[in-house]
Write a structure and sequence with these properties.
CATH class of the largest domain: Alpha Beta
Distance between the termini: 20 Å
Radius of gyration: 19 Å
Order of helices and strands: HHEEHEEHEHEEHEHHEHEEEE
Number of strands: 13
Shape: globular
Number of helices: 9
Structural class: alpha/beta
Largest sheet: 11 strands, mixed
Strand order of the largest sheet: 8-9-5-4-1-2-3-13-12-11-10
Strand content: 15-25%
Bound molecules: S-adenosylmethionine
Helix content: 25-40%
CATH superfamily of the largest domain: Vaccinia Virus protein VP39
């Protein structure tokens, strides 16, 4: 099965350079508020897609268990260093386009700052829908092509692509901005109902961020976030979508971690535990388990 290319963060210092030292306290705090507003306060099992170094994970602590999934093993190692190894966190290296989970598994899922690396967003969203249980809440953040800066630049003739059309724009290789309507259409086609939309980062302007105290920007952003129900012109948009149409009806019984997984290659479940790897009883592929990270990117070569 061929899948779209992955924007690989292996070895990246993204968390340090972009967040810790990148002057993005305002964006980070605005996201914390949005997540609090959108996510149920607790639940059984949450999937964090493209978890990176686990920046947002402490915001999901109301859930009994959190599965952190990322394609980059080094990002997961950073998350492990931050959050520790415990039964609460399951670390999974895998591709969003080939999720290694059984259908209907999760009560909730989040995908923050990840869709913008998806060359085939509907395909990725379909994978997410498949692993969500009935009534499951999915919080999706996407980068919005219909933002005010892009609109002005386009109207002034300083930008070739139109922010008003539905197709994604790839402004840098494997970095995409999406039209809010297109994202909503994809979610609805997959059977999600859109419960709420929040707009974020209204004040992502260098000068404002430099001269206005962050707390004030965050305060006003938190008020303006609600306008997302009517219009979306900010660079970042959060959507709360609920999965009403998952046919499996959700999995309410307690499963062991091993029972979460299916073979990402052939779909077989359960896999057989061989201590340092999981083996697929059907296609015989072996998936490494090392230092607390389940690795479903490529099977182990014999
Ligand atoms: C911009 S970072 C966001 C990290 C985190 N969500 C945050 O907001 O701090 C994007 C993350 O998505 C991951 N990613 C990109 N494409 C992926 C894919 N196809 N499957 C799994 N993870 C992917 C990258 O490895 C990276 O850690």
């Amino acid at each position: 099965m061929t899948t779209p290319p992955v924007c690989d963060y292996e070895g990246s210092d993204y968390q340090t350079s972009f967040w810790d030292q990148g002057g993005r306290e305002y964006e980070d705090r605005a996201e914390a508020i949005a997540l609090r507003r959108l996510l149920p306060p607790g639940g059984r099992l949450l999937l964090e897609l493209g978890a990176g170094a686990g920046r947002n994970t402490p915001r999901y602590l109301g859930f009994d268990r959190i599965v952190l999934l990322d394609y980059s093993r080094t990002q997961l190692e950073q998350a492990q260093a931050r959050l520790g190894k415990s039964d609460k966190y399951i670390y999974v290296a895998a591709d969003v386009y080939r999720l290694p989970f059984i259908d209907g598994l999760f009560d909730a899922a989040t995908m923050i700052r990840v869709l913008h690396h998806m060359a085939d967003a509907p395909k990725a969203l379909r994978q997410v829908r498949n692993v969500m249980g009935a009534d499951g809440t999915f919080i999706l953040e996407f980068a919005n092509k219909l933002n005010l800066k892009a609109i002005f630049r386009y109207l002034l003739g300083r930008q070739g692509w139109s922010p008003f059309t539905l197709e994604p724009v790839e402004f840098v290789k494997l970095n995409f901005d999406f039209h809010p309507k297109a994202v909503q259409n994809w979610l609805k086609e997959l059977g999600f109902s859109i419960e709420r939309i929040l707009t974020l980062s209204h004040f992502r302007i260098g000068l404002l961020k430099r001269f206005v105290p962050t707390g004030i920007l965050v305060f006003f952003d938190s008020i303006f976030q609600w306008t997302g129900a009517w219009w979306q012109y900010t660079p970042s948009v959060f959507v709360k979508a609920v999965n009403w149409e998952q046919a499996s009806g959700g999995l309410k019984q307690e499963l062991s971690v091993l029972e979460y997984f299916k073979c990402p290659s052939c779909g077989q479940s359960p896999l057989t535990d061989k201590n340092d790897h999981l083996e697929c009883p059907s296609c015989k592929k072996k998936w490494e388990v090392k230092d607390g990270i389940y690795d479903f990117r490529e099977p182990i070569k014999n």
